[in-house]
Amino acid sequence: MKLRHYGKPPARQNDWGTIKSLLPYLWEFRGRVILALVFLTLAKVANVSVPLVLKDVVDALNPAQAMLALPIFLLVAYGLLRLANSTFGELRDMVFAKVTQRSIRRVALRVFEHLHNLSLRFHLERQTGGMSRDIERGTAGIRFLLNFMLFNILPTILEIAFVTVILLVKYDPWFCIVTLVTLVIYVIFTLFVTEWRMIFRRNMNEMDSKANTRAIDSLINYETVKYFNNEGFEAQRYDETLQSWEKAAVHNQTSLSALNIGQGAVIAAGVTVLMLMAGQGVVNKTMTIGDLVLVNAFLIQLYMPLHFLGFVYREIRHSLADMERMFGLLGQNAEVSDKPEAQELKVNGGALRFEHVSFGYDDRRQILNDVSFEVPAGHKVAVVGASGAGKSTLSRLIFRFYDVTQGRILIDNQDIRDVTQKSLRRAIGIVPQDTVLFNDTIYYNIAYGQPNATRAEIIEAARAAHIDQFVETLPDKYNTIVGERGLKLSGGEKQRVAIARTLLKNPPILVFDEATSALDSKTEKAIQAELQEIATNHTTLVIAHRLSTVMDADQILVMDHGRIIERGTHAELLMRRGTYAQMWALQLQEEEEEELKVVGS
Question: What is the pTM of this model?
Answer without folding.
Answer: 0.62
